[in-house]
Specification:
- The protein is an alpha/beta fold and 328 residues long.
- It folds into 2 domains: 201 residues, NAD(P)-binding Rossmann-like Domain (Rossmann fold), CATH 3.40.50; 86 residues, UDP-galactose 4-epimerase, domain 1.
- The protein is built from 10 helices and 13 strands.
- A 7-stranded parallel beta sheet has the order 3-2-1-4-5-6-11, sandwiched between helices.
- The protein is globular and about 60 Å long.
Length: 328
């Protein structure tokens, strides 16, 4: 039997990854500050603890795991990352986790480790045109991320590459582009755009308006969770190091995202554009490199991913509304 460790297993991507690894026949240990909020863990062993604690990290890496996936981070959507209010925590917490996990794996002799970086590492100066952003892997330098979150991710990429060069570890790095799907954060301030839009549309009546930050012309691509997991596993089990984009090439404006969700919901939804954090004007995954190196690229349409995501979030919102009415 093979053994896998998933750091951040109580989160959205980590929870789905644990399910995939179990399907692949692994014994899985999951680690996080908390249990998964929306589903029971499929991990054989789930340890609640703080990966910022070096002693804890060394304790949970108690064997030579065949595969380690480091997804744990202090993160969230635009409302959390781009306000500037959480910069110190984001940088300190995430960097400490990566330093501890990587060093614990090195000392235990673990070789294969995946690190989840982010498209936020790409220079802001290449993402000013919403219709023509440049996010090819070789465009990362000269570095100028649009947030401290992006700077920390870039530092950690270099940390993993340094351990590969100096200690012979088989580190693999992916730059995720806006992953979404069921069982992800959908309220509370850390949710990303697809979840936020699904929530707002679900809680609005047909004919109402929902708030959209900025003019809604900023562009993004969004990748469904199943394809994120497939790309992640393929990368770690390959001879390719990365960094490489794991994202969709189907770029839409935020206004178009709202229209798609409204159509799925069968509602007429207007847009009220209000001030708010927006990040760069344009961002889209460039998948030429992953296609060349792995012989694979994501292919699922945005609509096909939004349909189950909206249904799941609408059900969550409805259950909260019903519970609130009962209390009242």
């Amino acid at each position: 039997m093979k053994f896998a460790l998933v750091c951040g297993a109580g989160g959205f991507i980590g929870g789905h990854l644990v399910k995939r690894l179990k399907q692949d026949g692994f014994w899985v240990r999951g680690v996080d500050l908390k249990f998964h909020e929306y589903s029971e863990t499929h991990a054989d062993d789930f340890v609640v603890g703080d990966l910022r604690d070096q002693g804890f990290c060394r304790a949970i890496v108690d064997r030579r795991f065949d595969e380690v996936y480091q997804l744990a981070a202090d993160m969230g959507g635009a409302g959390y990352i781009f306000t500037g209010e959480h910069d110190a925590d984001v940088m300190h917490n995430s960097a400490t986790i990566n330093l501890n996990v990587l060093d614990a794996c090195h000392k235990r002799g673990v070789k294969k480790i995946f690190y989840s970086s982010s498209a936020c590492i790409y220079p802001a100066y290449n993402q000013e045109d919403p219709h023509n952003p440049k996010c090819s892997e070789d465009s990362a330098y000269p570095a100028a991320p649009d947030s401290e979150y992006g700077w920390e991710k870039l530092f950690s990429e270099r940390l993993y590459m340094a351990y590969r060069r100096n200690y012979g570890m088989q580190t693999h790095i992916a730059r995720y582009h806006n992953i979404f799907g069921p069982e992800g954060t959908w309220t509370g301030g850390r949710e990303k755009a697809p979840a936020a839009v699904c929530r707002k549309v679900a809680m609005a009546s047909s004919g109402e308006e929902i708030e959209v930050w900025g003019d809604g012309q900023q562009t993004r691509s969004f990748l469904y969770i199943d394809e994120c997991i497939e790309g992640t596993v393929r990368l770690l089990r390959s001879n390719f190091v990365g960094p490489v984009n794991i994202g969709s090439e189907e770029m839409v404006t935020i206004n178009q995202l709202v229209d798609q969700v409204a159509d799925i919901a069968g509602k007429r939804i207007g847009k009220k554009h209000v001030p708010g954090p927006q990040g760069v004007r344009g961002r889209n995954s460039d998948n030429r490199f992953i296609s060349e190196k792995l012989g694979w690229r994501p292919s699922r349409s945005l609509r096909a991913g939004l349909e189950p995501t909206y249904q799941w979030i609408a059900a969550q919102a409805a259950s909260i509304t019903i519970a609130t009415r009962r209390v009242a």
